[in-house]
Design goal:
single chain; alpha+beta; Ribosomal Protein S5, domain 2; Pdz3 Domain; 2 domains; 6-stranded antiparallel sheet
C-alpha cells in the first residue's frame, strides 16, 4: 500500500484534457463578424482621404551644416563664422499626389494645435501628378537660391552684371508687339542697365504713362523701341515683359540642400549669405528662424504654412521669428509661447532686424500685432 502522505507521480502527457465545448454556429458567425469588422475598420482608417495635412516640418540652420557639409559654401571672398543660428523653416505635407493622407492622419491633424487640414482640391488642381509637383518645387527652390544670392550680394554692395533676355511679353501689355522673344535688354533712355535691380529701381521711379526708349540687342543689331509704360501694383511703372536673367556672379555661392522644395526659404538663404560674408556676428548667439520668398530686388514675399513654421521654430529652439508682412494676418493670435515675431518686407529690413536681435536692442522692431492694429 502506498503512503497516503506521499504524492503519486503523474505523467503530464497522460493527463486527459477536459473536453472543449463544441463551437456553435452562432459563436463562429460572431467571431468571424468581429474579425471582419476589425479588418474593415482598419482598412477605412488606412484608406486615402481627399485632404491635405500640413504639419511643422524640419528647420535647418543656414549657417550650419547639411549632411556633414556647409549648407552655404562661398568661394571668391573671405567668409566668417557665426555664433548664432539663422533657421529656414518648412512644412511637412501629406495628401498631395503620391503622398495620400489617411483618415488617421486627418483626424490627428484636426486634433493637433499646430497642423492644418485642407481639402485637396484647394491645394492641387485635379490631375496634378507627383512628378509635376516635384519639378515645380525644384524649379522654385533653384530660383529661390539664385534670387537670394543676387539680392544678398547687392545688399552688400556688390554689382551683379546681368544679361536680361526677353522671354515674352504680357498679353495686352505695353511691350506687346514691340519687344520680341530673345531680345536682350541693354539700356533705357540711353542709360546702360548693368543689373536687374537697376532696371527695377528705374521703373519704380517712373510714372505710369511715361515713354521710355528701350534699347535691345536683336539678332546682333542694336534696336531702340519707344514704350509707353503701364501702371504697376504698388506704384511705379512696368514694361509688360517677362525677363529671363543670367547673372555673372562676382562671388561663387553654393547652397547644398536636398529633399526640400519651394521658394519660401529665400529670405533665410539671403541672410545666411550676408552673415557668412560679413565680419560682424549678426545673430550673436541667438537662435533666429524665419521665412519669406526673396525676389531679385530684395523684396520679401508671403508664403504658406506660417503657423506650422512658427511651431517648428519653437520646437527646434528658436526664440525669434522673421515673418513676411503680408502674412501678418495669419500670425496675429497664433504665436507660440516663447517666440517673438518680427515683421519684415525687405532684405535690408530683415538684416537690420537680425542685427538688432543679436545686439539685444529689440524695442523698436516692427511686429505683426502693431501692423494689424493700424
Amino acid at each position: 500500500m502506498s503512503d497516503p502522505l506521499q504524492p503519486v507521480p503523474v505523467d503530464p502527457f497522460d493527463v486527459e484534457a477536459p473536453a472543449s465545448p463544441p463551437v456553435t454556429r452562432r459563436a463562429a458567425l460572431l467571431t468571424f463578424g468581429m474579425l471582419g469588422s476589425a479588418a474593415l475598420l482598419l482598412a477605412m482608417l488606412l484608406l486615402p482621404v481627399p485632404y491635405v495635412v500640413n504639419s511643422p516640418g524640419p528647420t535647418l540652420n543656414t549657417l550650419g551644416e547639411y549632411d556633414g557639409e556647409p549648407l552655404i559654401s562661398i568661394t571668391g571672398a573671405e567668409t566668417y563664422d557665426s555664433t548664432g543660428e539663422l533657421r529656414l523653416t518648412t512644412v511637412s505635407s501629406t495628401g498631395g499626389p503620391g503622398f495620400r493622407s489617411t483618415l488617421v492622419g486627418v483626424v490627428a491633424g484636426w486634433l493637433s494645435g499646430s497642423s492644418q487640414v485642407i481639402p485637396v482640391e484647394y491645394v492641387y488642381p485635379q490631375g496634378t501628378t507627383q512628378q509635376q509637383v516635384a519639378e515645380q518645387n525644384q524649379a522654385q527652390m533653384t530660383s529661390s537660391q539664385e534670387n537670394a544670392t543676387v539680392a544678398a550680394l547687392e545688399e552688400l554692395g556688390y554689382t551683379v552684371p546681368t544679361t536680361m533676355t526677353i522671354a515674352g511679353t504680357v498679353e495686352g501689355g505695353p511691350a506687346e508687339g514691340k519687344l520680341q522673344e530673345d531680345d536682350v535688354l541693354v539700356a533705357v533712355d540711353g542709360v546702360t542697365m548693368a543689373s536687374y535691380a537697376q532696371l527695377i529701381d528705374l521703373l519704380k521711379e517712373t510714372d505710369p504713362g511715361s515713354t521710355l526708349t528701350v534699347g535691345v540687342q536683336r539678332d546682333g543689331q542694336s534696336v531702340e523701341v519707344p514704350i509707353v509704360t503701364g501702371a504697376k501694383d504698388g506704384g511705379g511703372s512696368q514694361l509688360g515683359v517677362y525677363i529671363d536673367p543670367t547673372f555673372d556672379l562676382p562671388v561663387d555661392v553654393s547652397i547644398r540642400i536636398e529633399d526640400i522644395g519651394g521658394s519660401s526659404a529665400g529670405t533665410m538663404f539671403a541672410l545666411g549669405i550676408i552673415d557668412r560674408l560679413t565680419p560682424q556676428d549678426e545673430a550673436n548667439g541667438v537662435h533666429i528662424a524665419g521665412t519669406g520668398t526673396m525676389d531679385l530686388n530684395g523684396d520679401v514675399g508671403p508664403i504658406g504654412g506660417i503657423r506650422q513654421k512658427m511651431a517648428g521654430s519653437v520646437r527646434d529652439g528658436a526664440t525669434w521669428f522673421l515673418a513676411p508682412a503680408d502674412n501678418c494676418d495669419e500670425v496675429v493670435g497664433h504665436v507660440p509661447d516663447g517666440l517673438h515675431v518680427v515683421r519684415i518686407d525687405t532684405l535690408h529690413g530683415a538684416r537690420e532686424a537680425v542685427e538688432a536681435i543679436g545686439s539685444g536692442d529689440t524695442a523698436d522692431l516692427p511686429t505683426c500685432t502693431a501692423a494689424a492694429s493700424r
